[in-house]
Amino acid sequence: MGGGYYSKRKIGGIIVAAVLLLFGSETAVMAAKHVVGGSSGWDESTDFNSWASAQTFRVGDELEFKYSAGLHSVVELGGESAFKSCDVGGSGLKSYTGGSDTIKLTKTGTRYFACGTSGHCDQGMKVKITTVAADAPPTSSTTPTTSTSSSTTPPAASSSSSSSASSHHLIQFNMGSLVLIASSLIATSLLLP
Asked: Is 189 exposed, middle or buried (0-12, 13-18, 19+ CB in 10 A)?
């Protein structure tokens, strides 16, 4: 009789652990952190058109702007008109000046960012980010682009840069999911005789 009790407990523990792992992995949406501009970061020398076209931005992902504070900034613009005209003064929704700023992509749609330093946006230091649903497949039709500039990268170079861009597409688990997985493994080991 004792063996049957432990067998039922063991099976019950395994089922609980499996359910927790299943739901834990569902809540651990694989969000990506996109370092804007890749290894070059948020800088005038970066071709943001090529960088952005090699990315798929999903709801839940994060943009990380890395730059020299004081030399650059990040301004989220109100719309495409402000983006095209580099109107960083009057139409800015929010400004960032910390040098390492993270912006979460919380909904589908298009957002526009530019450097607030005088003349930098006109030199191409701006990016248009189009965010798709978290479960949308990665396709070139849903990837964002920036406005064209005189130094547009040819398509062949853009596709060859996608492998280096994907190295910046880091998979992150949220902390709650890791705790859930760890606790389910502990619970399973405690239930075993």
From this structure: exposed
- Report strand pairing: 74-77 vs 170-172: unpaired
**Rounded Cα gap, residues 39 and 37, in angstroms:** 6
Task: Give exposure, 36-65, as e/b (b: 16+ Cβ within 10 Å).
Answer: bbbeebbbeebbbbbbbbbbbbbbbbbbbb
Query: Could you give the count of Cα atoms lying within 13 Å of 52 in the half-sphere of its Cβ?
Result: 28
Phi, psi for residue 123 in degrees, rounded to 5: -85, 5
How far, in Å, CA of 157 to CA of 118, rounded? Answer: 30
> DSSP string spanning 52-85?
HHT--EETT-EEEEE--BTTB-EEEESSHHHHHH
Is the whole-model pTM more than 0.85? no
Residue 32 belongs to what H/E stretch? strand 31-35
Distance CA 42, CA 60 (A): 21
**Where along the chain do its domains lie?**
2-26+177-191, 31-171
The per-residue pLDDT for range 3-50, each reduced to its tens digit, is 555 566 666 666 665 555 555 544 445 789 999 999 999 999 999 989
CATH topology of domain 31-171: Immunoglobulin-like (2.60.40)
Distance (Å, rounded) from C-alpha 117 to C-alpha 75? 9
